Amino acid sequence: MFVLGNLIEALAKIVDIGLTIYMWMIIIRAILSWVNPDPYNPIVMFLYRATEPVLYQIRKWIPLGNIGIDISPIIVILVIIFLQSFLVRSMLQLAVYFK
Question: Which of 7, 23, 29, 76 sits a CA distance of 20 to 30 A from 88?
């Protein structure tokens, strides 16, 4: 059973790293929105393509167009922090149980 514990632990670490990278992508995109970057820059295009589907779903679910501030990145970051605190920790505890 230790193999299953090691597998779950490795998956938890990969999920944690992936969530951290995605959180930084959201932060960088939010900062770039303040300076109005070149939309044809490949890095900017990648950031927009990688983050827009999630941000769009949040904007569609919580329409806050009247206040003039896009808080969808903040909501996504809070969800990522929740997932890191709940999902990743639960997976690590489950891995310890199987060791």
Answer: 29
| Phi, psi for residue 65 in degrees, rounded to 5 | -70, -15
Structure tokens at 74: 């903040």
Structural domain total, the chain: 1
Domain that holds residue 55: 2-98
> What is the tens place of the pLDDT at every residue in 7-25?
999 999 999 999 999 999 9
* Orientation angle between helical segments 42-61 and 2-35, nearest 10 degrees: 100
Looking at residue 22, its pLDDT comes to 98
Task: Convert 6-73 into a string of H (helix), E (strand) and C (coil).
Answer: HHHHHHHHHHHHHHHHHHHHHHHHHHHHHHCCCCCCHHHHHHHHHHHHHHHHHHHHCCCCCCCCCCHH
